[in-house]
């Protein structure tokens, strides 16, 4: 297997609301797609939003998951102020702030928000590790 993730698909309860959150709230660029799914381009991969029940059916599992799903999606940024900016943008878009940004044990600065379906996003600055374009802040 090649070391890459090509797409992350989130099973969502309300596709319209989730599309508004990611496209208009967070500003992710949406691709043309059929009405039952939404695709967003990321740097080197894609984010897909699909009905939770339909995604569970596709995988052959029950759709009634509850509690912590054991996953968090990370968005690394170039600076501590950029962490604060992304967290503020997410909150303005309707995210629930789970943990305010702060200095963390591994030497960086990070916070967590939950999207409309409760998926956790960590927004982090790691002073020793940057994987984005040199001129990009967020």
Automatic annotation (TrEMBL):
Superkingdom of origin: Bacteria
Domain (VOC): residue spans on this chain: 4-126
InterPro entries cross-referenced by the UniProt entry: Glyas_Bleomycin-R_OHBP_Dase, Glyas_Fos-R_dOase_dom, VOC_core
SUPFAM superfamilies registered for this protein in UniProt: Glyoxalase/Bleomycin resistance protein/Dihydroxybiphenyl dioxygenase
Any matching Pfam family: Glyoxalase
Protein name, entry field: Glyoxalase
């Amino acid at each position: 297997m090649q070391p890459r993730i090509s797409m992350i698909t989130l099973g969502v309860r309300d596709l319209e609301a989730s599309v508004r959150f990611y496209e208009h709230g967070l500003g992710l660029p949406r691709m043309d797609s059929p009405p039952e799914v939404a695709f967003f381009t990321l740097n080197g991969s894609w984010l897909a939003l699909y009905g939770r029940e339909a995604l569970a059916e596709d995988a052959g599992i029950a759709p009634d998951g509850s509690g912590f799903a054991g996953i968090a999606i990370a968005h690394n940024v170039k600076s501590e102020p950029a962490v604060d900016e992304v967290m503020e943008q997410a909150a303005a878009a309707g995210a629930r702030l789970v943990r305010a940004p702060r200095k963390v044990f591994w030497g960086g600065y990070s916070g967590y928000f939950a999207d409309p379906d409760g998926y956790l996003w960590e927004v982090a600055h790691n002073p020793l590790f940057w994987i984005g374009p040199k001129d990009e802040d967020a």
